[in-house]
User: Fold these one by one.
Assistant:
Number 1:
Amino acid sequence: MGDGNVGQEFLATQVQLLEAGDTAGLSQRYAEDAEFVRLDKVVRGRTGIKELFDAYLEQKPNIEQVEAVQITDDTVLYQAREQLDGREVWAVGTLVFVDGQVWRQSVAFIDR
C-alpha cells in the first residue's frame, strides 16, 4: 500500500463499486487466493468473495461515512458508519494487501 493516500483511495473506490453494485469489479481487487472473514462466515477466492458481496448488497447497505482509518505498509484498519436492512451499524474491519491486491479482509458489523 505504501502511503495513506493509496489506502484512502482504495477505500473510496471500494465504496463507489459497492454503490454501483459492481461485485465483479470488487472481486477482481482481491487476490485469487484471498480470504474474507466475518463473524458469520469465511469465504475464499474471488468467486466466493463476489457471492459474499452479492449477499451484502441484498441487505441494502448505505455507507454513511468512513469514520476512522489506520494505514501501515500493507494493512488498512477501518471503521465506518452504515445501515444494513435499515439497522444502524459500525463496520469495523481490516484489509491486508499482497502485491497490490487484497489478500485477507475481515469485518464485523456492530449495532450502533
Number 2:
Amino acid sequence: MKYVLAIQALTTLLGGVLLGFFAAPQHTYSFISGALVILVSFFLMGWAWGLIFSKKLVALAIGIIVFKYAILGIIIFKLVDQTWFDTLWFALGVASFILSALGYAVKEALREGKEDVI
C-alpha cells in the first residue's frame, strides 16, 4: 500500500507541476483536487483496514465504509461548487490512480520474475 501511495503522491506532484506550466490554473487545481481525493481516500482505506483486521470488528468495517463514502460525496459536492472547478480535469486527477496501479503491477511482475529465475 505504501508503494501505491508513493506513486500516487509522485503522480499528483508531477501532474500538478506540469499542468502548472502548460495549462490554465483552474485545470491544475482541478487535477490536483482529484488526485488528492484519491490519495487521501486510499491512505484512509489502508489505515482503516489495518484497524479492522487487527480488531476483527465487522461493525467497524461497515461503519467505515458507510461514512467514508458519505464524506467523500460531501467533499466532491463542495468541490463542484467552486468557481475554478473543471470536471474533466478533476476526472483525470481521479484517473491518475491508474498510473499507481500500473506501477504496482509492474513492480510485482518484476518481483515474481526474479523469484521464478531462482
Number 3:
Amino acid sequence: MKVDGRHFRSIWLEPDGWSVGAIDQRRLPHEFVIARLETADAAADAIRTMLVRGAPLIGATAAYGMALAVRDDCSDAGIDRAYQLLIAARPTAINLKWALDEMMRAIMPAPPSERAGIAYARAAEIAEQDVAINREIGQHGLALIEAIAASKPPGDAINILTHCNAGWLATVDWGTATAPIYLAHDRGLKIHVWVDETRPRNQGASLTAWELGHHGVPHTVIADNTGGHLMQHAMVDLAIVGTDRVTANGDVCNKIGTYLKALAAYDNGVPFYVALPSPTLDFSIDDGIRQIPIEQRGADEVATMTGRTADGRIETVRVVPAGSPVANYAFDVTPARLVTGLITERGVLQPDRAALASAFPDRA
C-alpha cells in the first residue's frame, strides 16, 4: 500500500541483500520511522516490543530473523538457539510457530554451506505468499461488500466496523480485514469504516486510521464502547476483524474486545466476519477458550498513554492512579457460534471443522 504516494510494505530485504527493513509501528501515527534489523536478537526484540505486530507480519519477521541467524551461524546448534529465541517472543499468534517450522523444514536438510541462501529464499517466499493470500482474501471479502451495496439505496455508504489493526501494517501488504475494504474503495464503492480505538495500545486509532487516511478511505475513529450503540441504531452493515489464531472448530482469538463486538453484532443481526490467512489456522486445538494461551502484557500499556502535545512534542502520561493494580490481557476468544463466516484465500467458509478441513486438507 502507499504512504504519501510511495509504495511500502511493512517488512522488506534491504538493498544490501542481507539486512531487513521494517516500519517501526510503535512510532505511528506521529512519526514514520524505518528500523533496520541485522540479527535474530533484533528480530525477536522487534516482535516482543511490537515494533512489528499482527499475526502474519510476526510470522514474516520471524522468518527473516531465522535468515539473519543462519547468516551468522549456520550450525545445527546455532539454528536451534535462534528458533528458541524467536518462538518465545510472543505466545498467542500461531503464525510465529508456523513460519519458524517452515524455515526449519527448508534449512535443516541442507549442508551448512547452503543454508543461508536457502533461508533468505524461504523467508522471501513466506513474505510473497502472505501478499498473495491477502489479495485473495480481499477478493472474497469484496463479494460480500458488493452484495450489501446492491441491497442498499443508491448513494448510501456501506458502513463497516473493524477492531484493532488487521491492515497492511499487520501483514506484509494489503492486510486481512482491510483488503476487502481497500478493493471496494478502489472499485468506487461508497465505503465508510468505523475504527475502534482498540485500547490499550490504540492500534485502531493510531494504525488503522493512519492506513485508511493515507489511502483515502472515509473513516471515523470511535471509542471501543461505541460499537454496540451503532449496531442498535442500524449504523453498521457488517463487521470485519482479523485474528491471531483460529481453532479447528472455528473459534477465533483476536485482540481483546473482539468478543464483545461479536456479541453486540449477534444481538443486532449484524454479520460478523473474520478475515484470516491459512497460516493462522491451528488444527491442533479444538477449544479456543481453554486451550489458546492468552498473552498478558505489561501494566504500563493500560496505565499510560502516548500522544502529541499541542506544541508538537511526543509525551507519555499516566492515566491510572499510582498504586492501582492493572491487568492487561492482550487477546480474547470469540466462539465460533458468534461468527458469520471466515474469509480465507479459498473462499468464505463456515466456522466449523468440516468446512475448514475441506478447504485446507493440507493443513488439517
Number 4:
Amino acid sequence: MATLDEARSAKAALREKVTGLDGVIGVGVAPEFTTSLGQPPREFPARQHAEPDTSGGSPVEVLAEEVSVEQVTGPGGSWVLQVNVTDPGLVDKVPEEINDVAVRVRVLGAVRAG
C-alpha cells in the first residue's frame, strides 16, 4: 500500500524503466481501488449533465460536487503506478513494483486522431 506522495516519487523511476519501449503511451498514478469480499463497490459522486450548446455539440458530464483525494481512495486508500501500453507483449517488460509501489499495466488500443 502506497501513499499518493510515495507513488508520485516512484513515478520518475518507473518512467526511466519504460523509456524506449515502443508502445508505452502513458505513465501515471492511479487509485488502487480494492474492494473486500462482501463489501459493495464504491459509488462515485452523482453527475449532472450540462446543457448542450446550440451548435449541436454533445452534452458534457460534470461532477456535481468537489471530490477530495480521500473520497477517491477511501480511508487509508492506496495508490499504484499505471502504465498504458498498446502492445500486450510489453506487459512482461514492465516491472511489477518499483520503490515498493505496485505497478498496474493496462493494454489499450492505439491512440489515433478521430
